[in-house]
Design goal:
alpha/beta, globular, five-stranded parallel β-sheet, two-stranded antiparallel sheet, Rossmann fold
């Protein structure tokens, strides 16, 4: 069940999005209309290195990076600091276990909007990894760094007309 009462201190979110440079995006899609692709592209355009992880597209290229079949296949030299999970909640635990086992520079597990797994969160936090659940780093980045207007949100105009 997704909890609506979870809040994260703004300084924590700002620190994560300022300090992290390399993000492995698990479940990212090469299809430009999929939300995962849009998030990955946005973050890539903001200077983050996005390492795509999707077994159905392994070996292809996305955002200038090779698509990997799983987290274990990413070389340690990639220095993945954050894993952004675009998978259903019930699939999160094995992803977190794999990240903890194979990513030596891991600092953050981030679960997208609608994704929560308390068991995985407890496991990661016990290993000193920060966990964010049911949030989107793109939305948080826009909110914290003043870019919501650029995405067409919070324009102050309420209308269904095209201008």
């Amino acid at each position: 069940m997704i909890r609506d009462d979870r809040s994260y201190p703004l300084p924590l979110l700002r620190k994560i999005l300022t300090d992290v440079k390399t993000i492995a995006a698990v479940g990212i899609s090469p299809n430009p209309v999929r939300p995962s692709h849009f998030v990955g592209r946005y973050l890539s355009e903001r200077g983050y290195r996005i390492i795509p992880v999707n077994p159905g597209h392994a070996g292809k290229e996305l955002f200038g990076e090779r698509v990997w079949p799983d987290l274990a296949s990413i070389p340690p030299q990639a220095h993945v600091e954050m894993v952004d999970i675009f998978r259903r909640s019930e699939h999160v635990l094995p992803i977190v276990e794999e990240a903890l086992a194979h990513l030596p520079d891991l600092k953050v597990i981030w679960m997208q909007i609608g994704v929560e797994n308390e068991e995985a969160a407890r496991l990661a936090e016990a290993r000193g990894v920060t966990v964010i659940q049911n949030r989107c780093p793109k939305i948080e980045h826009q909110r914290l760094f003043g870019e919501l207007r650029k995405a067409g949100f919070n324009t102050g105009i309420i209308s269904s007309k095209l201008r």
